[in-house]
C-alpha cells in the first residue's frame, strides 16, 4: 500500500496529464497554456475528479476572458507572466473553483422535489 503523500502525488500526476491534452485542430493560446499549467502545477485541481478537470479549465478560461481581460493583455504585451498577471489568475481560480465545486455538487446530488 502507498502512503497518503504518494497517493496524492500520483493523483496530481493524473490530473496534470489530463490538463495537457488538447485538440490538434484547436491548440491553446500561450495565455491559455499558462492558465492550464499554473492551475495544475499549483494544486488547484487537486479537489477535482479527473473527469472534471477539462470542464473546469474551460470554465476558468472563459471566466478569465470575460471578467479579467487584463490578464491576457498583460501576457500579450509583456510576453511575461508578471506578478500582476499571477495575482489576477490566482484570484480567478479561487473564485471559480468554489463555484465549480458547488455546481458539480448540486448537479450530482439527488433532488427531492
From TrEMBL:
Record keyword Zinc present: no
Record-level Gene Ontology MF annotations: ADP binding; ATP binding; proton-transporting ATP synthase activity, rotational mechanism
Gene Ontology cellular-component terms listed: mitochondrion; proton-transporting ATP synthase complex
Keywords: Chloroplast, Plastid
Pfam families: ATP-synt_ab_C
InterPro entries membership: ATP_synth_asu_C, ATP_synth_asu_C_sf, ATP_synth_F1_asu
ATP synthase alpha subunit C-terminal domain: residues covered: 1-95
Location relative to the cell: Mitochondrion
Entries under CDD domains matching the protein: ATP-synt_F1_alpha_C (cd18113)
Signal peptide: none
Name this polypeptide is given: ATP synthase CF1 alpha chain
Provenance organism: Astrocaryum scopatum (Palm tree)
Amino acid at each position: 500500500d502507498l502512503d497518503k503523500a504518494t497517493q496524492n502525488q500520483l493523483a496530481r500526476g493524473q490530473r496534470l496529464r489530463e490538463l495537457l491534452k488538447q485538440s490538434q485542430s484547436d491548440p491553446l493560446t500561450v495565455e491559455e497554456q499558462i492558465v492550464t499549467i499554473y492551475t495544475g502545477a499549483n494544486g488547484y485541481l487537486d479537489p477535482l475528479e479527473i473527469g472534471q478537470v477539462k470542464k473546469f479549465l474551460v470554465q476558468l478560461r472563459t471566466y478569465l476572458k470575460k471578467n479579467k481581460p487584463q490578464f491576457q493583455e498583460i501576457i500579450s504585451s509583456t510576453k511575461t507572466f508578471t506578478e500582476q498577471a499571477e495575482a489576477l489568475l490566482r484570484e480567478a481560480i479561487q473564485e471559480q473553483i468554489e463555484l465549480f465545486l458547488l455546481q458539480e455538487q448540486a448537479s450530482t446530488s439527488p433532488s427531492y422535489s
